[in-house]
Amino acid sequence: MRRVTVGWGIASPVTITFLGGLGEIGRNCAAIEIEDRIMLLDCGLMFPDADMLGVDLVLPDFTYLRENKDRIEGCIVTHGHEDHTGGLSYLLRDCSFPIIGSALALGLARSRIEEAGLLDRTDLIPVTDGERRQFGPFDCEFIPVAHSVPNGFATAFHTPQGTILHTGDFKIDLNPVDGRLTDLATMGAIAKHEGIRLLLADSTNADQHGHSRSETSVGKVLREVFAAHRGRRIVTACFASHIHRIQQIADAAIDQGRVVATLGLSMKKNVRLALDLGVLKIPANKLFDINDVADLPPGEVCVISTGSQGEPMSALSRMAAKESKWLTLTEDDTVVLSSHPIPGNEMDVTKVIDALFRIGVDVVHSGIEDVHATGHAKQEELKTVLSITRPKWFTPVHGEYHHLVSHARLAEQMGVPKNRINLCEDGDQLVLTDDSISKGETVPSGYLYVDGSGVGDIGHGVLRDRRVLSEDGIVVIFVAVDVKAHEIISTPEVISRGWISESDTSGLIDECTVAVAEALERATDRGSAIDIEALQKVIRSAAGRFVKQRTKRRPMIVPVVVEI
Ligand SMILES: [Zn+2]
Ligand SMILES: [Zn+2]
Predict the structure, then answer these.
(1) Which of 216, 272, 428, 559 could serve as 175's disulfide partner, Cβ 3.0–4.6 Å?
(2) For the chain, percent of residues with pLDDT exceeding 90
(3) Is-catalytic flag, 202?
């Protein structure tokens, strides 16, 4: 193994701090440190779960990076997906550093940064397939991988502590749409010549047996589906960054004598970007503006739309709700959802499908035909990478905890000794020294929530309150006290929302009022000083007990003591 030796023959340690993506799918972010400099590896966002009420996005906790912002050398974006790039427009508010990646990944990342008005805080540095380049103390090699967005990279860091290989999001597609294979040869060559000290690999599909289907197999199915729906207008929906899917949809459509039009802002933007970069090829005379296709015969039109995840404001959802100003869907249309709902989005997707069926549209989705293939390696592919790279140490990344455990087991099966597999979670730090790789300190790694009002204004407490309110409602109890006269001067007034029917024919509100009044009576000594906080406690526990006993519910109880 190649080692750079400093000082007294001991190489300086290298650390990797995981700030997101280990324990959830999303907000991928890691910090690699050499000689006091930090290279970020991705900076992504996560879309919220259904129980994160009112939350738009979830980011990594940036505390560690903000505290060390002067040491940040740059950020490598492994590919253009938002779970790897979407946090940059937030982190750049506090820090300034260059972003390194393929031209396409940079192009995709750029939009959000530009929207946030932060382009002047960064330089976008494009790197190409197979390029090896030095950034400060970081000697980085960019290795092509196939994924569900073109031009993804695995990254090899040649460090004083040996080579760290990070696979990025990848699959082994032996028939990729663009012919760009996951470069196993280079990974193997590094493994053979200098050895791979630590492998960090994508775990998304680590519990899926077998091998992922090639993206080109989706093209074949799309052609069959299009042929079966000849003469009808076809509207397809897929991820706006899935340029290979867009290519295959366009190819199938054009072969069948259709023209193609994009619908949805991000689809339009990304198609333009990919055409400009030569990553997507659609003849100019076949690409129409959405305004110009409404009057064409249905059998000559294929619309490529956003909204494959049932996002409520997306172009597809609007069409399904008959609210699109661009297209009105009818029984003569076929909608192809060329996607699979990501966890958490199933309900939204089902709603859109139902709405489309109500209009009479013919809907084809991945449950009916194989119109989607995953972008992440399954077990046989992960084993292939483990066998080619023969890592000394292994840490699974990019996955929920059970994915990470499955991947760790695969590594063990492939010969990595158990004591050299470090199962890490968000906030963990790995320290690479001459002797071993072990866990170091932990850093803050909680969820940073973004909602309409800003970043970090809402914490777990706010979310817990929103959950309670949404499930059991709220009961507010007003009591007026005369502090000077040392007495409670009103009977409690109970108001509730979302607990019981507002008309309350059961008389529960009245009973609750009596229960609170009695508790107050028992708890207070006439004439002695009034302790507001103690009163609030008495009200909360009396009302809480009553409500729970009588209705088996736990609404939020808010005692309001008004001093007069
Ligand atoms: Zn990802
Ligand atoms: Zn990805």
Answers:
(1) 216
(2) 73
(3) yes
